Amino acid sequence: MPCDGVVYVEIRCRKTLLINKRVFGYEKFILNNTKIGERYVLKVESVSVDETQRIRSIEVMATVRPTMIQMPDMPSDLSIQQYVEPDDCQSVKIGWLSANSLTDLKYCVYVQENSNSLESLDFSVKPDQCKVRYGKSKRSDASNNYRTKTRCYIGEKGIVLVEKILKLKPLTTYTIQVTVTKPRGRTLSYDLLKLDTNSCGLN
Fold it and tell me: Which residues are in coiled coils (predicted)?
């Protein structure tokens, strides 16, 4: 998990290449049919000099016991979908795939009003996952500062979760962030969603 930036990840056993992938944000790799005593080599490198300057650090966790992983088991699709309701100008409905878990997971929805053009220029769909720590970060540095929290709740398992965000301004751009926290574990974020609210029948 690179803390901002993009890396190449390579996993080999002896000279056999098992995994070679470009990683931006959180990624999980599963090695099946591993053998006792075999040595697996993980190689992580930056994709460019510019990316090297962006990456503050890299977090790696390896285990043979999946239940020991502190991170939520995120779905392969981390996108947040907006359900269009043309007549609604002060709220939006969003949905996302739930994380995989046998235990209850806590989901939080955050809203950030984009008040200037610089925020639009700097926008990246992928959040810095290393800033989303343990669900206990301070407002100033957690979740990329998208800290106008609408609510947190325990989500159902194995379904698409849907949330309606109320009390928004018409004709306004917002960035939406959804985080999920594993009990006694880490907090991870879905991809960020930027959206524009409708006008209230104004021409």
Answer: none
Same domain, 64 and 91: no
Pairing of strands 105-113, 148-155: antiparallel
**pLDDT class for 135, splitting at 50, 70, 90?**
very low
Q: Are residue 191 and residue 101 in the same domain, yes or no?
A: yes
pTM of the model: 0.81
Determine phi and psi for 181, rounding to 5 degrees.
Answer: -120, 130
Does residue 169 have a pLDDT over 50?
yes
Cα–Cα distance, 122 to 3 (Å, whole number)? 17
pLDDT at 57: 80
Rounded to whole angstroms, the Cα distance separating 145 from 3 reads: 15
Is residue 94 within 8 A of residue 163, CB to CB? The reply is: yes
The number of folded domains in the chain is: 2
Strands in the chain per DSSP E: 6-13, 16-24, 40-46, 81-83, 92-97, 105-113, 148-155, 160-165, 173-181, 187-189, 193-196
